[in-house]
Amino acid sequence: MRSGMGRLAGGLGSVVLCGAALALGRPAESAVTKLIQIALFAAAVILLGLTTLRRTGVANKIFAGLVLGAAVGLAFGPDAALIKPLGTAFIRLIKMVVIPLIFASLLVGVASLGDMRKLGRIGGKTLAFFLAYYVTAVALGLFLANVLKPGENIPESVQAELKANYSEDVRTLGAGERPGVIEMLVDIIPDNPGDAFVKANMLQIIFLAMFMGVVISFLDRDKMKPVLSFFEAINDIMIRIVEIVIRLAPYAVFALIAAVVGTFGADILMSLLRYCAVVISGLLVLAVSYPGVVSVFTRFPYLRFWRGISKAQLIAFSTSSSSATLPVSMECAEENLGVSRQIASFILPLGATVNMNGTALYQGVTAVFIAQVYGMNLGISDQLVIVLTATLASIGTAGAPAMGVLMLIIVLKQVGIPLEGIALILGVERIMDMARTVINVTGDIAAATVIAHSEGELHSVGKPVAPGAPESPAGPQPGQPW
Ligand code: ASP
After folding, report:
1. C-alpha closest to that of 284 among 445, 438, 446, 433
2. Tens digits of per-residue pLDDT, 322-333?
3. How many angstroms is it from 307 CA to the middle of ligand 1?
4. What is the pLDDT of residues 432-475, one digit of tens each?
5. Which residues does ligand 1 sit against, CB inside 6 Å?
6. Which pTM does this prediction carry?
7. 413: nearest Cα among 237, 212, 211, 196
8. Which residue ranges form the domains of the chain, and what is each CATH number?
């Protein structure tokens, strides 16, 4: 009851503050009045966040921030850009963790792949499945974004303004200074690791982390233990920082969207809606493809696969985390689909760490979307770089909320797309995250099912095989109902 009253008071309070802000007139006369107006709006948002939405999740708050930010942007026009530093601070906080996070999580992830030598063949098949789907996912994302052009209806004047604002970040693609593909591939090898970190050359950092991870996995495990524990700890610290920083997201989104809409008008918002639709339709194509691939390879009934994994999908949707969903994915794979424990416990944890097809598609679409908004022309070699970097970036994406948007920075940086463009999509980021995590988890379970079948490790559900017992027939046998 008391909390209900508190929420009511908070809601009313923010309405009063908004009213007071609007009462000062639109457009406000002096700069001081405008500043007061913006302060009143911001206070309304904070009050709303602290009371009305206190018990709601971050996702709702971000959404509220998006709506209020857009309203403030429309009400104040270019003046709304005054609160942009709030959003810029948030972006800087996120960027702060990127390099240590990528380096630590990739190094630890690859080093633990060392066990693959034992599982040799299965490891090879797993990687082949993951990589094939990765490339398909990014290519699909690029295809949809190029055909549907979600960011291309921005008027030329707005594009020019965007370019002028971030001119140092915008490189006209195809210009002579861009290195060729071969040069770029050779450049992935860091000739000076220190330089790679200082210049934040993401591909070089990824190369170094992966190389070190592989070498660690071949060295004496006991000797390597302190190194692995150290990087595991760094990884944990960075993820914790992201969790803390993400709480500021609603306010940052409010500021960023207000500034964006205020400066560029509602056109940006319309293309944001188109952008969401493009990402979601790409994810849907992937979603329907998984049970198809599974039934082609294993003859496992299409709908039965869906039903079998729906619990894991719901958990993925609500937690936005492949890692948090892992126990449920394993349960679904083993109990509902008949994947053997050995295969499930190898492929699913690996998948939750490195297999993020939904994230890869999202990164592909988003990179092209931002480039389109900024009026950049992406050539074939740029698109190939996106396929390569989005695959690598998604492999390096931790299975936790908002990690995909963090890793998107790698893709943007590599192609020369302005990082500030991320501000455009932050407002819808959580919704996109929920959707792509469902696909990430579905892809892991599909891989486990297909590979289990190829190894004769896909059993009839309800007939667990005792350890040491002869393998049960793989997949449905003629005349055997599933
Ligand atoms: N949230 C995603 C996952 O856990 C990762 C991402 O942010 O794309 O699968």
Report:
1. 438
2. 877 877 888 889
3. 22
4. 888 999 999 999 999 999 999 988 888 877 544 333 333 333 34
5. 320-322, 356, 359, 397, 399-404, 433, 436-437, 440
6. 0.65
7. 196
8. 2-81 (no CATH), 117-199+265-454 (1.10.3860.10)
